[in-house]
Amino acid sequence: MFQAVSSQRSSLVSDRTPERAALASRSSFTSRSALLPITAATLAAAIFVLDTLTDLEIAAAALYVAVILLSVRFCHRRGVLLVGGTCVALTIVSYLLTRSGSAYSGGINGVISLAAIAATTYLVLKIESAQAAIDETRAQLAHVSRVTTLGELTAAIAHEVNQPLTAVVASGNASLRWLAADPPDIEDANRAIERIVREATRASEIVGRIRDLAKRAPSATCWFDLAETISATMTLVQGQVKQHSIALRTAIETDLPLVRGDQVQLQQVILNLLVNAVEALADVGPGSRELRVSATQNGQGVVVTIADTGKGFGPDGERMFDAFTSTKPQGLGMGLAIARTLIEVHGGRIWTEANQPRGARVRFLLPLPAPTRGTGADHLEGGKQKNDR
């Protein structure tokens, strides 16, 4: 059932034009990014003119503080230092060019302005260093969480890898028999070899997804198909879904726009939510285990929903996102806390709801850069849905 859904999804995605949507989104993102340095340069030039034309008694150069604060939005450490140094140079040049006012008062104001610029630059760099340390700690914690989650899925993943390997062995033996026949059955042997290639590729893809999740790599932002990421992540829990006889339902819109973010981090969020749902369903009776995964687009962005018919979170569902809060006896309570952090890093939000008639529903929203589709109004409309009933 799940493989059929994946193949349907792949064929539907191939009919879309992701390159066109990505180009429009990337163009919008780039134009907004270029606007910040232009604004900072314009502001610095305006302050320089104001500081030069006004009396020395007026400390207009202190306004360069705003330029330094703005530079944090688009500059790294060296860039901020360069901006600060430029502001210092402009302050000194403006003082030398200004002829009106008291030189003594102007000197004092100049020193005050230079001190404000230097202090702001120093504090901004300290804040940036602290933020970098926080980001590094968050990345390490997320990596540990991914490896821990994959460790819990070891048996299921081994089963998923073993299936195509078993098919490879069977097809290899069959091809040997066809070739040893008198006369050799070349046509059947070719079909068996094609199955070997297909199943070996499937096993390689599973191993590749596991490797991407397990490796410790720097955060990499890119444009990617969220629907394909969801489908690829679901293959990692397919063994547990079969083991617990869980009915899997999917409803993924076929024309979801590409999203921008760290694909591995978002895959980790999806995997964590799927694992939590499967574990919740393992505690309910057979025949009433249902897992529903959906992805839709609304006016705010793309919403991914993972719902199960387990016992639910109870009245304090939002507390599940607090660190060290878990409904599992052996759980550390870090999975959902890390998931919330990763979603918020991407500018989104995540929340829980009660599923009907029972169970829990976790949703997260990823905002889209506006305009996400500059290639036509047809891409703005909600798409058809693919349902596995």
Automatic annotation (TrEMBL):
Pfam family, one: HATPase_c
Segments passing through the bilayer: 34-50, 56-72, 79-97, 103-125
Enzyme Commission number: 2.7.13.3
Entry protein name: histidine kinase
Organism annotation: Bradyrhizobium niftali
Domain Histidine kinase: 156-370
Keyword annotations from UniProtKB, A to Z: ATP-binding, Kinase, Membrane, Nucleotide-binding, Phosphoprotein, Transferase, Transmembrane, Transmembrane helix, Two-component regulatory system
Keyword Membrane (UniProt): yes
Catalysed reactions, as listed in the record: ATP + protein L-histidine = ADP + protein N-phospho-L-histidine
Stretch forming the signal peptide: none
Record SMART domains: HATPase_c, HisKA
Major enzyme class: transferase
SUPFAM superfamilies from the UniProt entry: ATPase domain of HSP90 chaperone/DNA topoisomerase II/histidine kinase, Homodimeric domain of signal transducing histidine kinase
MF GO annotations: ATP binding; phosphorelay sensor kinase activity
